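Pipeline run #58 for the internal structure catalog. This entry was flagged by the ingest filter as a single-chain record with no existing model, so it goes straight to prediction. Upstream metadata was stripped on purpose; only the residue string is passed forward. Reviewer on rotation: M.T. Logging verbosity set to normal.
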Amino acid sequence: MVLTLAPAAAFGAPASASAATADATASTGTTSMAVWRPPVQSRWQYQLEGNPAYASTGGINVGICVTPQTGGACVRPSVFDIDLYVDAAVAGNNTTINTAAVKAIHARGAKAICYVDAGSIEEFRPDYQQFVDWHKSHGNSLLGKPFSEEFPNERWANINNDKGQRDFLLRMMEARVAKCAAAGFDGVEFDVVHAHEEGKSVTGWNISPATQLVYNRALADMAHKSGLSVALKNDLSQIPDLVSSFDYAVNEECMEWKECDALKLFVKAGKPVFQVEYKTSPSTFCTKANAATLNFNSIKKAADYSLKDLPYKPCR
């Protein structure tokens, strides 16, 4: 991205001409749905954890306005990446769809991306028991190792299909995506779609690159058929094969791990990169993110990987 700030319209305000022309029509077989596709420069916020202070908007701070790393007046995101469900700490349960946040985001002229974990099984989800039951009834062939030390309450999913695992997972994801669409979300982020890169020692499963491509493309097609745009989350090694299927990228810590060059293909294709760093200082990575050589929409969030409304520091 260029070092100077772009005009407000370039950051994806839905009423702008740039956003209107960015919308496209996706074929759904029997019907056509307008799929929102954001401009390359679209400022974003990543808030997957609710704040009880904003209970009326599903725990999401939709009015957030923060001075960017480039300085000047505070800026507001035009894209919010939030969870499908209201945080249990806000709703008092784990089953409330966050329609309130979506409506509030739209009322401010912004768009909402629906976070769905498609590659690991989280214990706190309302449909968790369905995964457990399927796992037990199919030779313990679905739930793998814990995702990480930071996230021990989720387990890597087996996306192979020797016992129908992938078919089952796609049915479950389809049900989740239907909820995203019914709630009015504009897009969906499928997380943890890179098991093939981690290997059996991490995930518990042997996942080939070809198997990952089949699964990821099925997810992208599923989103488009539901009228939603779709993010490729990480999976940097397969970007050349997947950039045509996905509408934008969501990346964690490519600056930290010096992996950002792989994401240039999205920007080259006219598709934005929504990028977040946790441990690296904005003073270190923002100049690079804003430069024309990358042109990323980068933000800084908490070093402990929590995704509350604050801290939040957009690069521009």
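catalog note: DSSP finds eleven helices and 14 strands in the chain.
catalog note: Confidence is low (pLDDT under 50) at residues 1-10, 12-32.
status: ready for reviewer M.T.
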